[in-house]
Amino acid sequence: MTDTANTPARTDLNPEHTPRISWAEQAPEVYRAMVRLDSAAAKGLDPVLFELVKIRASQLNHCAFCLDMHTKDALAAGESVERILQLAAWEESRHFYTAKEIAAIELTEAVTVLTDGFVPDEVYARVAPHFDDKELAHLIAAIVAINSWNRFAVTTRMVPGHYTPGDFAH
Predict the structure, then answer these.
(1) pLDDT tens digit string along 72-106?
(2) How do residues 42-59 score in pLDDT, each as one tens digit?
(3) Cα dihedral 109/148/150/56 (nearest 10)
């Protein structure tokens, strides 16, 4: 990661947008429930796989805040820059990922883009052999959780670029 403390500020960049509302402050019980859901979903899932799922859903949902957060969290968890960069083109970059990771990424896309015809039986059939039932239930919960986080962040226009891993430790 880049040490921004010693990097001079660029003056040629566009200004940051302003958040519409701080939903976590205005609905703290909802925020706390989301944190509990996210924490519960993570149990039993590999932390790197968990971050890959969050990054891929955030790419599909165009959630810059969550992309900022989860790429940084993935790097902190030991993920490589190369695998994070290739995630947007995973179908052409399958050799960067395990079969289990590809299955999780494919399920993430199917759950995230429900307008493409729900979660196809073929996708589920390819995913199921890589996870036991408990792990699969947690994976589905993780995908649902990140999609919810994305919708909160995009709707309220949360500002990316200021997150440091551990800022929102549960």
Answers:
(1) 999 999 999 999 999 999 999 999 999 999 999 99
(2) 999 999 999 999 999 999
(3) -20
- What token pair was written down for 43? 């149990």
Structure confidence at residue 117 (pLDDT): 74
Query: What dihedral angle (degrees, nearest 10) is formed by the CA atoms of 28, 150, 146, 127?
Result: 160
Extract the tokens encoding 132. Answer: 């036991």
DSSP symbols for 36-92:
HHHHHHHTTS-HHHHHHHHHHHHHHTT-HHHHHHHHHHHHHTT--HHHHHHGGGTTT
Q: Which of 42, 91, 43 is nearest to 70 (CA)?
A: 42
Question: Can you say whether the dihedral through the CA atoms of 3, 38, 77, 51 is positive or negative?
Answer: negative
User: Quick one: which H or E segment has residue 127?
Assistant: helix 121-127
Long-range contact set of residues 162-165: C-beta below 8 Å, sequence gap at least 24: 162/68, 163/65, 163/68, 163/69, 163/72, 164/72, 165/72, 165/73, 165/75, 165/76
Six-digit token string for 166: 């551990």
For the stretch 121-164, pLDDT in tens is 999 999 999 999 999 999 999 999 999 999 999 999 999 988 89
Amino acid symbol at 161? G
